[in-house]
Amino acid sequence: MKVEIWSDIMCPFCYIGKRKFEKALEQFEHKGDVEIIWKSFQLNPDMETDPGRNINQYLAEIKGWSLEQAKEMNGRVTQMAEAVGLKYDFDKAIVANSFDAHRLIQLAKTKGKGDLAEERLFKAYFTEGSNIADKETLSAIGTSIGLEPEEVKEVLDSDKFAENVQEDLNESQQIGVRGVPFFVFDRKYAVSGAQESDAFLEVLRKASEA
To answer: What is the mean pLDDT of the chain?
Structure first.
């Protein structure tokens, strides 16, 4: 079974959804037969990287909220993350365009390390406050999951895998993805959002019987 997951590194619900899906997968009787394919999605393709601003400040500006309102909302998301064992720090999360991070994931996918790349980038963004648009940061992350430093540098210094990212973005529009995370099971069933693990498990079983 193939499970395709459209996701953005800067989407807090995508990391939470990843954990909930993983919990369901652990309980699934045929988990060894499941291939997970991460797909690129950008919540804000036009976002300009600004290491001097955090996500609380950015959210307040684009939503027309006060900084306190933004912090309150992200505080609730932080609690959701804690419930699945994740630590979010929105005060440290840097405003950064995720396109190059997606190119790194596309490279990692060719080496069977797509899930590793996704996990490491989520942690870098939400927990460590790393700038996921910075090439040195991305190079260090790529090397840390076992990618060849020279190959990572070659990709980041060029536009390699940009087409792959764009193909995923185009495909998301074709199949009607309105938000992420978005899970597609064998192109038969779809689950939108960070649903509870029981919901994922039910769809896994349904898809395996279809």
So the answer is: 97
